[in-house]
Amino acid sequence: MKIYPLRIGRTKVPFGQFYGGLHGFSLREFAADKDHFIWVPIHAYLIEHPTAGPVLVDTGISPEQVAHVDYYRGSIMEHVMDVDEYDLPADQTMPAQLARLGYRPQDIRAVIITHFHEDHVGPLNLFAHAPVYLGAAEYAAREEKVFGLVPLAYPPSIAAITDWRPIEFTGPAVGGFTGSADLFGDGSVLALPTPGHSPGSTSVLVDHRFLLTGDAMYTIRHLAVDQVRAIQTGDEGQYVDSVRRIQWLRRQFPELVILTAHDHTDYGARLVAGLADGELSDADLSWAKSYERATFDELANLNPARLPRYVPAGDGGGVGHAA
């Protein structure tokens, strides 16, 4: 079974959003800090399943979202999100990325979304013909508002979908997870509950070889949850618990490769490049495991030399990078 990363543009985020969770970075700072931005990629994934057909995990962003004002006009989102928050070159739109692999949107047989945040469901309406799988808790919370202001699911981004498939995790335990869901009945694609970042955040285990975490982990460094932590708009206790369960899964399957939606590190870039033809070579897998050994100890504690730090832009602008 092949798995292809789809690069669907990028998003500009405060460094503290990704890395300030243990350093007092507040939601107020998240809204006000315009001097410590970093660009991070947005990735969805295409799985070529032998019987279910081509399946998407997440959908990234759409050109309409990038236009921003027209799409979000009249909603709180117009004011919460920066006008230049998203960047989407023409060759990185969802239809263009699918065409690169020989597919059209109408060829997709199913979509799995890890959670309802806008950078994961932007072009979801392209797939109104397909069933959409998501955690039952996420589906139940779709009309709730974060802090009473921002909707978990922005209605125009999901309006066309009629075939929702809420996932109940009643299947066997896997790694640190007490339940799972076998989405296609052959054990090859398992949904795992990783709540915290959102109420029903879900990760996807493919062939027991790849774990697609959505935003349950922003980058591979977030595996060290006691040293590197994103700020949370959801339940921080659940977020920490979900990462610990991923740590146990990784111990059970030592060759497991973690693929996130926004990993801007060398690790993320190398794996995305290595999966360009849908399969990871032995050399790339060996490199990934060597990188992990140099980054974490056996208990997933981070090498202090690899703690993230903000590096300002050389031209004095507001968008730097994370080292």
Automatic annotation (TrEMBL):
Keywords: Hydrolase, Metal-binding, Zinc
CC cofactor: Zn(2+)
Domain Metallo-beta-lactamase residues, every copy: 41-262
Listed SMART domains: Lactamase_B
SUPFAM superfamilies registered for this protein in UniProt: Metallo-hydrolase/oxidoreductase
Organism for this UniProt entry: Actinoallomurus oryzae
Keyword Metal-binding: yes
Protein name: Metallo-beta-lactamase domain-containing protein
InterPro entries assigned: MBL_superfamily_lactonases, Metallo-B-lactamas, RibonucZ/Hydroxyglut_hydro
Keyword Transit peptide: no
Family statement drawn from the similarity comment of this UniProt entry: Belongs to the metallo-beta-lactamase superfamily.
